[in-house]
Design brief:
By secondary structure, the protein is α/β, with parallel strands linked by helices. The chain has a single domain (6-220), classed as P-loop containing nucleotide triphosphate hydrolases (Rossmann fold). The protein has helices at residues 20-23, 25-32, 52-62, 109-121, 143-154, 172-187, 226-236, 238-246; strands at 6-11, 35-36, 41-45, 89-93, 100-105, 159-164, 191-195, 208-213, 216-219. α5 (143-154) runs parallel beside α6 (172-187) and α7 (226-236) packs across α8. The chain binds adenosine-5'-triphosphate and magnesium ion.
Length: 251
């Protein structure tokens, strides 16, 4: 299907060495299994530390993105913080090339913003890069505003967007705006691969949700994820859940 740029990811061989990376359950799982992408939008969910960022970052680097985030034209690097997992990856691509792309790492979005400002200060041809990000330096907008400006102004369609916890900065209302933007882009032949903890985001219609656990990776209906079920129990009866958490006297 046109618009599915990444079809699957697996490892060519088990990651050698006795370090944290080779011991990560998701890495061991991928040495023996292939993770297939069937939909325009795929979510990777799971507990803190199961390896979502490690996996998504290795995938982005294997596809030619800057490890700290940005488009394929960004090649700054402030810290060598990415793992060597990408070297062992086998990524199967679709028949067409994406026209656009962006890798968002919540932790280093600040550096992406700095890089845009710096490139615009240097002499060059063409309009300032900041124009395609809404015209205002991402540093002069709040975290949430700048991220939404990126999605609404810079993401242009027919693209491959790899996002690590995009909800981190967004209010529920802005998160719904992001979802509306994702819907329009996915209908314009874009593919999203997104790690998230947000039960709101994972309700995106037609998305595939992969839950990563110490056992491996499983495709699950979003209502069956631990995130969804726990959040629902809290919202349905906060007093009862606070009672469990803090004891019966919790107010
Ligand atoms: N550079 C590193 N050196 C040692 N251990 C690391 C390194 N990077 C990640 N890890 C470990 O690998 C595991 C997976 O980390 P990762 O950031 O991929 O988790 P995650 O699923 O994205 O978690 P979160 O939901 O908190 O973002 C963690 O236990 C982490 O401590
Ligand atoms: Mg993470």
């Amino acid at each position: 299907m046109d618009g599915l740029y990444v079809r699957s990811v697996s490892l060519r061989e088990p990651v050698p060495g006795g370090d944290w990376l080779s011991a990560l359950p998701v890495v061991r799982y991928l040495a023996a299994h292939t993770l297939d992408f069937h939909r325009q939008v795929t979510f990777l969910v799971g507990e803190n530390g199961v390896g979502k960022s490690t996996l998504i970052e290795a995938l982005a680097v294997a596809l030619g993105f800057n490890p700290e985030g940005g488009t394929k034209n960004f090649n700054f690097s402030t810290e060598d913080s990415h793992s060597g997992l990408y070297r062992h990856m086998r990524v199967s691509r679709g028949p067409t090339q994406p026209r656009d792309g962006f890798f968002l790492r919540a932790e280093s979005f600040y550096n992406v913003a700095s890089n845009i400002d710096q490139l615009d200060r240097e002499p060059g041809f063409g309009p300032p890069i900041v124009d395609s990000y809404g015209g205002v330096s991402l540093h002069r907008q709040s975290h949430g505003e700048s991220f939404l400006a990126l999605a609404e102004h810079r993401f242009g369609g027919r693209g491959l967007y790899i996002l690590d916890e995009p909800e981190a900065a967004l209010s529920p209302m802005r998160l719904m705006r992001l979802m509306a933007r994702m819907k329009a882009l996915s209908e314009d032949r874009s593919q999203f691969i997104v790690s998230t903890h947000s039960p709101v985001l994972m309700a995106f219609p037609g998305a595939e949700v992969y839950e990563i656990t110490s056992e491996g990776i499983q495709s699950v209906p979003y209502r069956e994820t631990e995130h969804w079920q726990l959040t629902r129990r809290i919202l349905e009866n906060p007093e009862k859940m606070m009672g469990y958490l803090f004891g019966k006297d919790a107010d």
